[in-house]
Amino acid sequence: MATSVAVNEDLTLIRRLRLASVVEASTLLTLLLVAVPLKHALGYAIATRVMGPVHGAAFVAYAWCVTVTVSGGGDWTRRELARLILAAFIPFGGFANAGLLRRKEAAAAAQVGRR
Protein backbone atom coordinates (compact mmCIF):
# COMPACT_ATOMS: atom_id res chain seq x y z
CA MET A 1 0.00 0.00 0.00
CA ALA A 2 1.38 3.41 -0.97
CA THR A 3 2.12 6.02 1.63
CA SER A 4 0.22 9.28 1.76
CA VAL A 5 3.29 11.22 0.66
CA ALA A 6 3.77 8.97 -2.38
CA VAL A 7 0.11 9.32 -3.36
CA ASN A 8 0.31 13.13 -3.03
CA GLU A 9 3.46 13.09 -5.16
CA ASP A 10 1.70 10.96 -7.81
CA LEU A 11 -1.17 13.45 -7.87
CA THR A 12 1.24 16.35 -8.31
CA LEU A 13 3.08 14.54 -11.12
CA ILE A 14 -0.16 13.76 -12.95
CA ARG A 15 -1.30 17.38 -12.69
CA ARG A 16 2.07 18.55 -14.01
CA LEU A 17 1.82 16.06 -16.88
CA ARG A 18 -1.68 17.33 -17.76
CA LEU A 19 -0.36 20.88 -17.93
CA ALA A 20 2.67 19.85 -20.00
CA SER A 21 0.38 17.93 -22.36
CA VAL A 22 -1.83 20.94 -23.01
CA VAL A 23 1.14 23.28 -23.45
CA GLU A 24 2.89 20.88 -25.85
CA ALA A 25 -0.25 20.39 -27.93
CA SER A 26 -0.96 24.13 -27.99
CA THR A 27 2.54 25.05 -29.13
CA LEU A 28 2.42 22.39 -31.88
CA LEU A 29 -0.89 23.76 -33.16
CA THR A 30 0.43 27.32 -33.01
CA LEU A 31 3.49 26.26 -34.96
CA LEU A 32 1.48 24.38 -37.59
CA LEU A 33 -1.52 26.69 -37.92
CA VAL A 34 0.03 30.11 -37.36
CA ALA A 35 3.82 30.18 -37.73
CA VAL A 36 4.18 27.95 -40.81
CA PRO A 37 1.47 29.75 -42.79
CA LEU A 38 2.98 33.11 -41.79
CA LYS A 39 6.34 31.95 -43.05
CA HIS A 40 5.16 30.52 -46.35
CA ALA A 41 2.24 32.79 -47.21
CA LEU A 42 3.57 36.12 -45.99
CA GLY A 43 7.31 35.56 -45.81
CA TYR A 44 7.59 36.00 -42.04
CA ALA A 45 10.31 33.43 -41.36
CA ILE A 46 10.71 34.86 -37.86
CA ALA A 47 7.44 33.15 -36.90
CA THR A 48 8.92 29.67 -37.24
CA ARG A 49 12.27 30.76 -35.81
CA VAL A 50 10.44 31.80 -32.65
CA MET A 51 7.76 29.09 -32.40
CA GLY A 52 10.07 26.24 -33.39
CA PRO A 53 12.26 26.47 -30.28
CA VAL A 54 9.25 27.25 -28.07
CA HIS A 55 7.55 24.07 -29.24
CA GLY A 56 10.83 22.16 -28.94
CA ALA A 57 11.16 23.19 -25.31
CA ALA A 58 7.52 22.27 -24.65
CA PHE A 59 8.08 18.87 -26.29
CA VAL A 60 11.16 18.17 -24.16
CA ALA A 61 9.28 19.26 -21.02
CA TYR A 62 6.38 16.97 -21.93
CA ALA A 63 8.70 14.02 -22.59
CA TRP A 64 10.40 14.65 -19.26
CA CYS A 65 7.06 14.83 -17.44
CA VAL A 66 5.94 11.54 -19.03
CA THR A 67 9.19 9.89 -17.97
CA VAL A 68 9.09 11.20 -14.40
CA THR A 69 5.37 10.55 -13.91
CA VAL A 70 5.35 6.99 -15.24
CA SER A 71 8.60 5.99 -13.56
CA GLY A 72 7.49 7.58 -10.29
CA GLY A 73 4.97 4.86 -9.64
CA GLY A 74 1.28 4.85 -10.04
CA ASP A 75 -0.73 2.36 -12.04
CA TRP A 76 0.35 2.92 -15.66
CA THR A 77 -0.15 0.27 -18.32
CA ARG A 78 2.02 -0.13 -21.39
CA ARG A 79 -0.91 0.94 -23.51
CA GLU A 80 -1.30 4.18 -21.54
CA LEU A 81 2.43 4.85 -21.82
CA ALA A 82 2.34 4.27 -25.58
CA ARG A 83 -0.65 6.59 -25.83
CA LEU A 84 1.16 9.33 -23.90
CA ILE A 85 4.23 9.03 -26.13
CA LEU A 86 2.35 8.90 -29.43
CA ALA A 87 0.22 11.89 -28.46
CA ALA A 88 3.27 14.13 -28.62
CA PHE A 89 3.64 13.46 -32.34
CA ILE A 90 0.03 13.97 -33.38
CA PRO A 91 -1.68 17.37 -33.58
CA PHE A 92 -4.45 17.46 -30.97
CA GLY A 93 -2.85 14.39 -29.32
CA GLY A 94 -2.14 16.21 -26.10
CA PHE A 95 -5.77 17.29 -25.94
CA ALA A 96 -6.93 13.73 -26.70
CA ASN A 97 -5.08 12.52 -23.59
CA ALA A 98 -6.97 14.94 -21.36
CA GLY A 99 -9.58 12.33 -20.47
CA LEU A 100 -6.99 9.69 -19.55
CA LEU A 101 -5.04 12.14 -17.42
CA ARG A 102 -8.23 13.45 -15.79
CA ARG A 103 -9.22 9.89 -14.81
CA LYS A 104 -5.73 9.19 -13.44
CA GLU A 105 -5.86 12.44 -11.49
CA ALA A 106 -9.29 11.61 -10.07
CA ALA A 107 -8.08 8.15 -9.01
CA ALA A 108 -5.02 9.63 -7.29
CA ALA A 109 -7.15 12.31 -5.60
CA ALA A 110 -9.54 9.62 -4.35
CA GLN A 111 -6.60 7.78 -2.80
CA VAL A 112 -5.50 10.98 -1.08
CA GLY A 113 -9.05 11.44 0.23
CA ARG A 114 -9.06 7.92 1.70
CA ARG A 115 -6.00 8.62 3.82
UniProtKB/TrEMBL annotation:
Stated membrane topology is:
Multi-pass membrane protein
Q: Where in the cell is it found?
A: Cell membrane
Q: By its UniProt entry, which InterPro entries does this protein fall under?
A: DUF3817_TM (IPR023845)
Q: Where is the DUF3817 domain?
A: 14-97
- Which residue ranges run through the membrane? 19-38, 50-69, 81-101
Extract the Pfam families matched here. Answer: DUF3817
Q: Name one GO cellular component term.
A: plasma membrane
| Chief place where the protein resides | membrane
Query: Keyword Membrane on this protein?
Result: yes
Q: Which keywords has UniProt assigned to this entry?
A: Cell membrane, Membrane, Transmembrane, Transmembrane helix
Q: What protein does this entry describe? A: Integral membrane protein
